[in-house]
Task: structure prediction
Amino acid sequence: MPTDELVPLAEQLLEVPQHLIRTALELELQEGTVIADRVGETPCVFLAALYRAERAISDRLMRLANGTLPWPWIDSDKALPWVEKRIGFALAESQIAAIRLALMSKVVVMTGGPGVGKTTIVKAILRILAAKGAGLLLCAPTGRAAKRLTEATGFEAKTIHRLLEVDPKSGGFRRGEDNPLDCDLLVVDEASMVDVMLMQALLRAVPDKAALLIVGDIDQLPSVGPGQVLADIISSGAVPVVRLTEVFRQAARSRIITSAHRINHGLMPDLSSPGTDSDFYFVRVDDPATAVSRIIELAKTRIPKRFGLDPIRDIQVLCPMNRGGVGARSLNIELQAALNPAGDRKVERFGWTFAPGDKVMQIENDYDKEVYNGDIGTIDDVDINAGEIAVSFDGRSVKYGFGELDMLVPAYAATIHKSQGSEYLAVIIPVLTQHYAMLQRNLLYTGVTRGKRLVVLVGQKKAIAIAVRNVSGRRRWSKLAEWLRPSEAGSPLRARTDLG
Result:
């Protein structure tokens, strides 16, 4: 954080005079707990661990990028027609250019919004390299994102934590410099979600010989944890970047996808009634109380009846924030009462009621149970005598003692931040002016792109307009892009490919 902002903020929060804060800061700098440096021309104070992590990411990426390719030269003029036959359709020019670049690059970043064919490109690259006998590893930050990657490519993907073999006791990883991963190519999907510390741990475990393909949507929300790793790598110009902009014909028929791209370009989505069958709707409501009853009606009856979806399993309410009458917290209580009213077998702990059939979300990583922050499950059983509940996560049953229920919250409604890396068949998003503090373009864009078959915005046009216009957000002060930036423009690594 800039020193000029840090000192007055600390003064306000701690209610102590500035000279004491400056003295404390000097002592912290001497001890090395924090580090003083500049971001551009701005003097900043960094937490030492994060400063070192960004430096390590920069060093590691440059070392990987400057190495030799782990596979022999591939004749893409032969490989491309071969892979088109295997995946069953013709690739577009932009996709062909992206695949050619990836087959020649040691480190490459691929970014773009929904419907631009990122998954098809990854699938084609993996098919070509698998046929050449290359060792492939795929990972993503969340269980849901890893599952989606597996389904989309046909190659097994793991969460980053599982790939790095997390040690439940220490919370550290068994994979690292001394025990690297065994692969020729590592694919990292949903990279916008990966924070500084996790990216450092991952890159530490990538062997020098391996190539790296980083895939993500730069316009989504940044990681919940510190840093903006994907954005910094892209803006540095240090490694080849493929920016995919062409929305394919099939995808362009989806109003979810066209609306997401409009939002991302600072344009209002089409909120008029679609008339015919559509996958994107706007329900106008002007006050929070009406919004709550409309959301319940949509989730309980209208969407299940019209689209044949299960109200608990298939429909997800995503809120800009936790607090307020139309925030995730109070909506959870309302939706739980409407969709799964508790019978006799229920337990009340930590301000929530838990009963069989409830949809719940894990809110912190539990390495012993192998359940991670943001994972969603369903309660199968509440055993009052044994003092435990059983929760099913993707068909795997996990037991929680009643004392561990602070790790779970009902998940009928969740914040958009918590939904990163996930996809849901149907999404309902309340957007009202009372969410003013959180109405930002990347938040709305992230929420809309979570919906697979249906997205319903409930609220005011004015609130949507505020979100679409607001690109400010809070600036993240990081030095990674600076460290990565080549010292002269003529660096052989400097490459950006805009494909569209």
In short: The longest strand covers residues 451-459. Confidence is low (pLDDT under 50) at residues 488-495. Residues 288-307 form the longest helix (20 residues). The two ends are 37 Å apart (CA to CA).
